[in-house]
Design a protein that fits this description.
This protein is an all-alpha fold. The chain has helices spanning 6-15, 18-31, 33-45, 49-65, 72-93, 96-113, 120-137, 142-157.
């Protein structure tokens, strides 16, 4: 089966009645947890981006608290899980400012956690987040760039 293009789907959805669109959305939400999470974000949380960002930061902090620091293998696995969570929420929001805030929070939490960042695998995770942070930071407004770059400099000075 060939998947339809976004344009074709958009045209077909425009031709449907609102009740049919709602039924399709509910059916889509039944199949995959990520679809249900995206619909939840769009319906209930997208209107207050700041509150959503704060709740995601709390979730990241809780995940950092649960890291097994005695074994670097498990710490690395948990760090990758955290980065997947960040990537997922950034896809949901599509807000560059939120993405910068979450990635900065991740880097701060990693430095504060006591996990040795010099470890090769963990250093790659940290550097990957820093690269993503820099690339997203370049797309923001100049005033926001200035503020976030100051935070980034404080983070690198640690």
């Amino acid at each position: 089966m060939r998947a339809a293009t976004i344009q074709e789907i958009k045209q077909e959805l425009a031709a449907l009645k609102p009740a049919q669109v709602a039924e399709l959305c509910l059916r889509l939400a039944r199949f995959k947890k990520e679809n249900k999470e995206l619909l939840t974000y769009l319906l209930f949380e997208a209107h207050d981006e700041h509150e959503f960002t704060e709740s995601v930061k709390e979730e990241i902090t809780e995940l950092f608290d649960s890291i097994n620091k005695s074994h670097l293998y498990y710490a690395k696995k948990t760090l990758r899980k955290i980065t997947r969570v960040i990537n997922k929420y950034c896809r949901y929001s599509q807000s560059k400012q939120m993405e910068v805030g979450l990635r900065l929070h991740f880097c701060k939490q990693l430095q504060d956690s006591g996990i040795p960042v010099y470890n090769n695998a963990i250093a790659k995770i940290y550097e990957g987040q820093m690269k993503k942070l820099e690339s997203v930071l370049d797309t923001l407004h100049e005033d926001l760039q200035y503020d976030y770059r100051r935070e980034l400099e404080r983070l690198n000075a640690r």
